Amino acid sequence: MLILLPPSEGKTAPARGRAMQPDRLGFPSLHEPRAEVLDALVSLCTTDSPAGLEKAAAVLGDGKTLTAEVERNARLATAPAARADRVYSGVLYEALDLASLEGAARRRATSWIAVASGLFGLVRPGDHIPAYRLSGDVTLPGIGNVGTFWSRRLDGAVRDAAGRGLVVDLRSSTYSSFWRPDSETARRVVTVRVLHEVDGTRKVVSHFNKATKGRLVRAMLQDGGNPTTPARFAEHLGRLGWTVEPGRPGKHGTSVDVVVSDL
C-alpha cells in the first residue's frame, strides 16, 4: 500500500541538528529534479535588498509577511534538518501523531506513507529535511509552475513505491496535480472525501477534513490491514468503525466518502 499525503504549509523548524543530506532522502530517482528546485528556490531567496526580499515573498505567496521565511529558504542547504514527520506540523499531522506510534505501526508508516512536497516531490516520514516555504502552486523562476514541474517527474517514483498494491490518495487539490494515474493504475487508486453531516445536511469542512484524514491513517497503520482494491478499502474502513460510502470508479481512481457527525 502507498498512502499519499499533502504536506503542511506550516512547519516546525528544527532548532539544531545536521543539515539535510539530499543523497540520503527516499525516492533517490528524484535526486536531480530536487536539486534543480532547491537551487532555484535558494537563488530566488538569496538577496540583501528589501526589494529582493519583497519580490521573493510575493513569488512565494503572501508578500511582505513572508520575508522571514524567504531568509530561511536562503539557508536551506545548511539549515538544521529533522524527520519530515516532525517538520510537518499542520492539523493532519497533529491528528496522525506519527511520533507516538510504536512497533509495527511505526514501521508501516515508514514504508506506506509518502508526502507530496513542492521542494522534494515526494518524501518519506523518516527523511530528514529542513523547514521550508514552497507551496505546490508557486511559479518559481527557472522552474515554472511547481506542480507542472513535478507532474512530469513523479510517475516512476509513485509506481515503484506502490508496486502492485493500493494507492490511497489523500492529497489536497494543490498537490493532486503532482501525479495522476493512467487508466490502468487508476483501478488501484482510491481517494477519500470527508463529509460532516448535521441534521441531514452534509458539507466539507477543511479543518475537520484534515484532522479526520490524520485519524483515519493512524487507525489504518495501527490495524495493519492491507486492502488491495478500492472496494476492499471501503469495507476495511467500515470494519474500523468509520461510516463509509463508496463511489464509482473515475478517471483518477475511485472516490470514497467518509461521513462523520462529530467534530
Polypeptide structure, described:
There is one protein chain. This protein is α/β, with parallel strands linked by helices and 263 residues long. The chain has one domain (2-260). Helices cover 39% and strands 20% of the residues. The protein has helices at residues 31-45, 50-60, 67-73, 84-87, 91-96, 103-112, 146-151, 155-162, 173-176, 183-186, 206-223, 230-239, and strands spanning 2-5, 82-83, 113-117, 121-123, 128-129, 139-140, 144-145, 167-169, 189-198, 201-203, 243-250, 253-260. Strands 1, 3, 4, 8, 9, 10, 11 and 12 form an 8-stranded mixed β-sheet that branches. Strands 2-5 form a two-stranded antiparallel ribbon. A two-stranded antiparallel sheet has the order 6-7. Strand 9 (189-198) and strand 10 (201-203) form a beta hairpin. Helix 2 packs across helix 3 and helix 6 (103-112) crosses helix 11 (206-223).
The average pLDDT value, as a whole number, equals 93
Percentage of β-strand residues? 15-25%
Q: What composes the largest sheet?
A: 8 strands, mixed
Q: Topology as H/E string? A: EHHHEHHHEEEEEHHEHHEEHHEE
Could you tell me the radius of gyration in angstroms? 19 Å
Q: Count of helices?
A: 12
How far apart the termini lie comes to 28 Å
Shape: globular
- Oligomer type: single chain
**Low-confidence regions:** none
Helix content: 25-40%
What is the number of beta strands?
A: 12
Q: What count of domains describes the coordinates?
A: 1
Structural class: alpha/beta
Summarize the model shown.
This protein is of the alpha/beta class and 263 residues long. It has helices at 31-45, 50-60, 67-73, 84-87, 91-96, 103-112, 146-151, 155-162, 173-176, 183-186, 206-223, 230-239, and strands at residues 2-5, 82-83, 113-117, 121-123, 128-129, 139-140, 144-145, 167-169, 189-198, 201-203, 243-250, 253-260.
